[in-house]
Amino acid sequence: SARALGGNTLVAYSEELNAEAARRLDLEAQLVHAVERDELDLHLQPQQRLDDGELVGFEALVRWRRGGELVSPGEFIPIAEESGLVIAIGEWVLERACAQIIALREMTGRDFVVAVNISARQFRHPGFYATIEALLARTGVNPASLELEITEGAVMEHTEAAVGLLHKLRALGLKLSIDDFGTGYSSLSYLKRFPIDKLKIDQSFVRQLKPNSQDAAIVQAVIGLGHTLGIKVIAEGVETIEQREWLKRLACDEIQGYFYSRPLAEPQLFAFVIRQCRAEAAA
Ligand code: C2E
Ligand code: MG
Ligand code: MG
Ligand code: MG
């Protein structure tokens, strides 16, 4: 009967919720030990400048090897954010990113920019600025090689404090970018108050990008806005040559996505960088 069916659906639904909650608890309990057990990895995804095709930098993306399973940051970062573990994980990521900047410089003699994702909670943590300052002093990396990716959500609440902190970070010489631009708060007035170097156009606007589409109009407007304000624009999630060509015609500064390269672990990363540097030297 309909009633029995409704009852079964409810049971199934609540079992599903329980399974989800159980996985979450399980992940959280093991995430506590992920750093000390050396289960995290940092993959770097190359970024390409469009006018001359040069490799200019990378986005650092964290990976968690949990037993035989690779848990995606889309799943464990929100758990880390809620539990506060994101502070320790974030420090590990920053440390590792600085080590990569140094390794890449030693290998190529070039200063590449490595962009690190900073979660809202990490950004608002009272010790954040001191952590960055200590990191720069300890590792000696060129501050201009380290970019912090912040989301609109992280900076829009607590605006006064956020503006002050962004200026202090910028004064250290770091680069600052707004991640997933266009998906968060739509108030644009912060752009003139924040010392931002780069906007990252969210991949949702890039996926169906084609001439005369609504997405093309949005992307064109963002690029125009950025350039008017002296801010560079990078498009995320570029998977095809058509998307790349269209972004180039719209005067987008840089691209990142599977078309140029997937996020790379160390041996492949170094091979990619050496290949690009040789190709650019030959060009
Ligand atoms: P995000 O910062 O917007 O990173 C871009 C995501 O798009 C990455 O997913 C990347 O692997 C993926 N991607 C890159 N190119 C393409 C493409 O051409 N097509 C498609 N479909 N996807 C592409 P990933 O690595 O799974 O990371 C997901 C999110 O997790 C990131 O989104 C970021 O918000 C967060 N995250 C990753 N690493 C960290 C970290 O170290 N700290 C913090 N706080 N968050 C992180
Ligand atoms: Mg990002
Ligand atoms: Mg993004
Ligand atoms: Mg995203």
UniProtKB/TrEMBL annotation:
Extract the coiled-coil ranges from the record. Answer: none
- First-to-last residue of the parent protein present: 283 to 565 of 565
Please spell out the taxonomic lineage of the organism that makes this protein.
Answer: Bacteria, Pseudomonadati, Pseudomonadota, Betaproteobacteria, Burkholderiales
| Record's protein name | GGDEF domain-containing protein
What is the originating organism of this protein? Herbaspirillum robiniae
Entry superkingdom: Bacteria
Annotated EAL domain residues: 24-277
| Alphabetical UniProt keywords | Membrane, Transmembrane, Transmembrane helix
